[in-house]
Amino acid sequence: MKSALFLLLIGALFSTQTDNFSKKRVEMVKNQIQSRGVKNAAVLDAMRKVPRHRFVPSDKVSDAYGDGPLPIGYGQTISQPYIVAYMTEIINPKPVHRVLEIGTGSGYQAAVLSEIVSEVYTIEIVDELSKQAASRLANLNYKNVHVKTADGYYGWKEHAPYDAIVVTAAAEHVPPSLIEQLKEGGKMIIPVGSPFMVQELMLIEKSKGKIRTSAKMPVRFVPFTRK
Ligand code: SAH
């Protein structure tokens, strides 16, 4: 009897906690994301659904729904929620799409994408982060995310071409292999610029064999490193 009561209490506490987090996500979407102009319903839904607090270190859980990036160890960061939403919206993700991400980090951007598209392939250069993200995504039951440790400069040829490519580390130039692995009609979003300086988020579109590039907004990402 006592233990049943105890379990009930734990259950109630846990569901209050879960409710709190989902409430925080609703506020995050309204105050940080919709307020800055993101409109795509599938993107907003995904941002309301993915438990961001499960992608940050345990001592950062209370800041998980704040309006900024957070450290995730190894000198890396999980991007600001708005930037994740913006980058997801701009590639115009569809349920049939297969998307390549460079810079898995915590796995959060991959999880957001996986709520919308059919398959997500994601590459991380730091093996420890790659392993942590893979087990985190498996624990959260994200079955359509495929993680590997490698230098993302070369893309992931086996599964190419991709409908979209999302790069979450700042490169000095756009890696040619990534352009090659983009489908006709595909879109890539990538921060370009020198490390630790303001970079420009660039949209790259491949259409009728031509490459169109447009600068979208100044951003600050961790550097794209090489093996
Ligand atoms: N998308 C991540 C943000 C990670 S920050 C998230 O949602 O949490 C960028 C990540 O890119 C870092 O983890 C860094 O280690 C990784 N990275 C940097 N250069 C890379 C490269 N050449 N190939 C693959 N990953 C790289």
From TrEMBL:
EC number in record: 2.1.1.77
GO molecular function, one term: protein-L-isoaspartate (D-aspartate) O-methyltransferase activity
Alphabetized InterPro entries for the sequence: PCMT, SAM-dependent_MTases_sf
A Pfam family this chain is assigned to: PCMT
Cellular compartment(s): Cytoplasm
Catalytic activity: [protein]-L-isoaspartate + S-adenosyl-L-methionine = [protein]-L-isoaspartate alpha-methyl ester + S-adenosyl-L-homocysteine
Highest taxon of source: Bacteria
GO CC field: cytoplasm
Active site per the UniProt annotation: 79
GO terms classed as biological process: methylation; protein repair
Keyword Plastid: no
Enzyme class: transferase
UniProt keyword annotations, A-Z: Cytoplasm, Methyltransferase, S-adenosyl-L-methionine, Transferase
Gene3D superfamilies given in the database record: Vaccinia Virus protein VP39 (3.40.50.150)
Keyword flag RNA-binding: no
Family: Belongs to the methyltransferase superfamily. L-isoaspartyl/D-aspartyl protein methyltransferase family.
Function: Catalyzes the methyl esterification of L-isoaspartyl residues in peptides and proteins that result from spontaneous decomposition of normal L-aspartyl and L-asparaginyl residues. It plays a role in the repair and/or degradation of damaged proteins.
Official protein name in the record: Protein-L-isoaspartate O-methyltransferase
Organism lineage: Bacteria, Pseudomonadati, Bacteroidota, Flavobacteriia, Flavobacteriales
Gene behind the chain: pcm
